[in-house]
Amino acid sequence: MVPGLALCVPSGYSYGAALLLLAALASAPVWWRRPAPRTAWWLTAAFSCMAALWLLDVGAAWGWGSMDRPVKYLLALPCIFYLMTFQPRAAWLWMGIAVGAVGSGLVGLYQTYVMGLPRANGFTNAIQYGNLSMLLAVMSGLLLVAQWRRWVLWQRLLLASAIALGVAGSVLSQSRGGWLALVLLLPACAWLLVRTTGQRRVYWGLCALFVAAAALSQVPAVELRVDEARQEMQTYQQHGDGRSSVGQRLAHWGLAWQMGWDRPLTGWGRAGYAEEKARRVAAGQAHPVVLEFGHAHNEILDLFAKRGLPGVLLLMAFYGIPLAMFWPTAQRIRDAQGKMDRESLSLCLVGVLLPLSYIGFGLTQVFLAHNSGNMFYLFMCPLVLAALHQRRARLGCPRPL
């Protein structure tokens, strides 16, 4: 349900998470007494540190809504230990990813061609929807390639449909950040597949994907958005016009960079960030467009301005710890006889995709400023980790480090 309903229904990313939390609370006397692997504690540390960081934003000026984000992070913690005790099978996760990508694309097609919306949004922000739809499509592609021989015909067709419809959802959202993230994701995925499987024909598949992407760039809606981005960048560089989508991002980035270096150790805080922006706009030191948003349209720069270098380091740990936990080492992807286990490999690759994609998405959007971005990461990471431990246990292998 976590990936399967994420983009198909309003607040779809919450239903599976709520059930996991209820199950964790109901079974607390069981999992509380059982030792958890080190990876669970590392993930708990990453989530707890980010929760502490978000708690710094809590204040009377923002009301009870300021507690929303840190509470989500804290409520995810018992789910980690519940999942490490009652470990899910990867097959259900694969089905959820495929169904989620298919559902996302169908919602995008319905919203665009039946409802007549200019941009598909999948019941959330169009950028969030488009990026997560692309992520589900890439995950489906990895599953199709990594376990091709395992799948029967209907499963291959389902995963192929998931790729096509997930990409369609991204295209219909007209979100350019997801396509920018692909520049990071596709070469990394291809290199990891070749490195772990030794099958160099994966590179030919990557070439085919780039050709397909080039063909998609000729789709009128995509071509128009690319041309708009180019023109908006030129307009900002020549005239300083920050009213366009690209222009306002460049204005936010420049201001956040300056503000971060003004207070590199502490940052300005959430309230101080808003106040200082207003002061600089009034003094003619920043474009007025920066007042329209409460963030800097870049995950790292936003934290740099608000929480300084310590905030940036915590964000790097938030991404870096899962990346290290899922990195496909020989101990994580080989069975007791030393042979490659494709399902373990798939779990590692899907796990690596999560932080890598969020890094890519965060280049042009503060992805963690939205519920969809937080919830998907908070619950997919422990789900993939628990499924990996379950698979290694079934193979009679040591726990993955």
TrEMBL record:
Query: Which Pfam families does the entry link to?
Result: Wzy_C
Topology with regard to the membrane?
Answer: Multi-pass membrane protein
Subcellular compartments = Membrane
Q: Which residues cross the membrane?
A: 12-32, 39-64, 93-114, 126-146, 153-172, 178-194, 201-221, 308-327, 347-368
| GO CC annotation terms, alphabetical | membrane
Which PANTHER family does this entry report, sorted A to Z?
Answer: TEICHURONIC ACID BIOSYNTHESIS PROTEIN TUAE
Name-wise, this protein is Polymerase
Q: Where is it chiefly localized?
A: membrane
O-antigen ligase-related domain: from which residue to which, for each copy? 163-315
InterPro entries assigned: O-antigen_ligase-rel_domated (IPR007016), WaaL-like (IPR051533)
Q: Report if keyword Membrane is assigned.
A: yes
Kindly state which keywords UniProt assigns to this record, in alphabetical order. Membrane, Transmembrane, Transmembrane helix
